[in-house]
Write a structure and sequence with these properties.
The protein has a two-stranded antiparallel ribbon. The longest helix is centred in the last third of the chain and has 66 residues. The protein has one domain. The relative contact order is 0.10. It has 5 helices and 2 strands, in the order αααββαα. By secondary structure, the chain is mostly helical. The radius of gyration is 26 Å and the shape is elongated.
Length: about 200
């Protein structure tokens, strides 16, 4: 059942990111997920973390607890993606009260509110609906295989992009170094030429 919950909430996250967030930022729908398929795993992980770790029914405790969990997950995920693939999938640098552009109080508050809705209203209804799929290992196995293939393909694709970024960066640095050395050489030659002319003029 955990696999089904993970996929469902990942798809909901993808819909949110690729429609509402994309329309606000890019004025069109964009696949903002790491993977090729229509799912954002960070949303699936965040929802499961909240469901598993937060047992309280108190709205304020759910809000604060899920904010902490979601922010921690988001920061770690952003850090790893940046280090592994040299890219940023999100950047909160223009938001107030942000930490290294990876998390901010605004986004964390939205996640907190969403998780209150999740724990109090959405997930209890979803449990009864998903009970129908209990005891169907074939379906779970197929979904796991699809996810695994997507993960492998997506990692390979983003590593290819990473190599292109490194190559462009290396070429840019090389050209910059060459131009700098050439400029230094020109300045040195002009300096020597001027020095010779001054010496000749004095003599």
């Amino acid at each position: 059942m955990i696999v089904l919950y993970f996929i469902f909430y990942s798809i909901i996250g993808w819909i949110y990111e690729s429609t509402l967030c994309s329309l606000i930022k890019y004025k069109k729908c964009v696949n903002r997920g790491f993977m090729v398929g229509p799912y954002c795993p960070i949303y699936g992980c965040g929802a499961l973390l909240t469901i598993i770790c937060i047992k309280s029914e108190h709205i304020l405790l759910i809000f604060i607890g899920s904010m902490i969990l979601s922010s921690t997950l988001e920061y770690i995920t952003a850090y790893l993606l940046e280090k592994l693939f040299l890219r940023k999938w999100w950047d909160y640098s223009h938001f107030p009260l942000n930490l290294h552009g990876r998390i901010c109080i605004y986004a964390s508050s939205i996640f907190g509110i969403a998780n209150v809705m999740l724990v109090r209203y959405i997930h209890p209804q979803l449990e009864s609906l998903f009970d129908k799929f209990d005891g169907k290992p074939m379906l779970i196995g197929i979904l796991i295989i699809i996810l695994s293939i997507d993960v492998i393909y997506s990692v390979k694709k983003h590593y290819s992009v990473k190599n292109v970024i490194r190559e462009v960066y290396a070429n840019t640095v090389t050209k910059y170094d060459y131009s700098l050395q050439k400029c230094k050489k020109t300045i040195y030659e002009k300096k020597e030429s001027l020095s010779i002319k001054i010496t000749e003029h004095i003599n």
